[in-house]
From TrEMBL:
Gene (UniProt): ftsY
Limits of the Signal recognition particle SRP54 helical bundle domain: 90-163
Reaction(s) this enzyme catalyzes, per UniProt: GTP + H2O = GDP + phosphate + H(+)
Membrane topology type: Peripheral membrane protein
Keywords per UniProt: Cell membrane, Cytoplasm, GTP-binding, Hydrolase, Membrane, Nucleotide-binding, Receptor
Residue numbers spanned by region Disordered: 26-85
UniProt-listed Pfam families: SRP54, SRP54_N
Name recorded for this polypeptide: Signal recognition particle receptor FtsY
GO MF annotations, alphabetized: GTP binding; GTPase activity; signal recognition particle binding
Enzyme Commission code: 3.6.5.4
Residue intervals of the SRP54-type proteins GTP-binding domain: 177-378
Residue stretches of biased makeup (Low complexity): 27-42, 50-71
Record-annotated AAA+ ATPase domain positions: 176-322
GO biological process: SRP-dependent cotranslational protein targeting to membrane
Amino acid sequence: MSFFGKLKERLFKSSSRLSDGLDEIVADQSSTAADADTGAEPPAAPPAAAPAASAPEAPAARTDPASSPEPARGPEPEAEPEQPAARPGFFARLTGAVIPETEQRRLVDDEMLETLEDLLIRADMGVETAARVTANIAEGRFGRRISARELREALAGEVARILEPVARPLPIYPKRPQVVLVVGVNGSGKTTTIGKLASQFRAAGKKVVIAAGDTFRAAAVEQLQVWGRRADVPVLTAAQGSDPASLAFDALTQAQRDGADLLLIDTAGRLQNRQDLMEELAKIVRVLRKVDPDAPHNTLLVLDATTGQNALAQVEVFRKIADVTGLVMTKLDGTARGGVLVALADKFGLPIHAIGVGEQIDDLAPFDPEEFARALVGASD
Ligand SMILES: Nc1nc2c(ncn2[C@@H]2O[C@H](COP(=O)(O)OP(=O)(O)OP(=O)(O)O)[C@@H](O)[C@H]2O)c(=O)[nH]1
């Protein structure tokens, strides 16, 4: 199955929430506004969509949505004349041909935009991003009629536009070994992400070393060892409770000696004592720089999509305690909160290197903004 197919299937909970909501928005009121779009013949009634020239002008404020979190909307459009019921085309009537289902349309007005904005907020896009996306959808469409398919396409386009600047694969530098520090709260998926990255880079012919830097949690170390065996990658460990910075130093020295391409360092994620964690991470960085002044070359923050808006708070915290250079979002399968990725991209602009949609090695994929946007809103391939 293509990754898009898998993504669509796995993002089912997020996309069904959004997709069903979009259908409902259009179905609501559409009984009086159904177009006679039979496909067999042009509609008998004049096209329902108002020509661009007669559509109410969007206020200028909408062109700068950043300055007004509330989407500014145009004046109330004049009520459109009720459309006659869809009538089969002449050829269809003559031959009794089956008429394709009419495409329902809904007027883009204040009420519709409010419902759309609510839907986006409920999909975890966040208030500001939902407002911005809604304002952009209104632009040029206000006062016209839109079908669910068109709305879905428009939304996919807007989401992809927000995601496009941040969709960047993990950069690979000529410098060897490239040191990647992996941070994030416990349970966010750090270990699994390291395992998947190690396997994928190994399969691509890179020499990889893993350092099990969460020396307090024996289970985390064991889990990394399992991934290491699976990927045929050495995992460096230290005695339980020993200094993670000292392990990081040894790991980098060994990675240099072995001519490794990549060193992936797992870290603890106990946010309960932020000061301790900050000092621990700062010490790891200080010690790594004794061996290589440019290390770490990347600091990846791993976020769990199921935490929804909490992921935004985690970015704020980790940006304060570590020099985060990019994000990986895990567990996008099985959550209805996939929209949070759009909020993250919009708010922080940090590169999103990869997304996790399952627990297997190939369930971590580079982040493709268009694929993701289409899967999220339930648009077709
Ligand atoms: N469904 C799903 N589960 C995932 C994904 N990524 C990780 N997990 C699971 O989430 C759980 C936590 O993942 P870990 O990799 O152990 O998380 P961690 O951040 O290393 O957590 P600690 O070891 O507690 O520090 C595990 O059961 C993983 O199998 C994903 O993309 N999808």
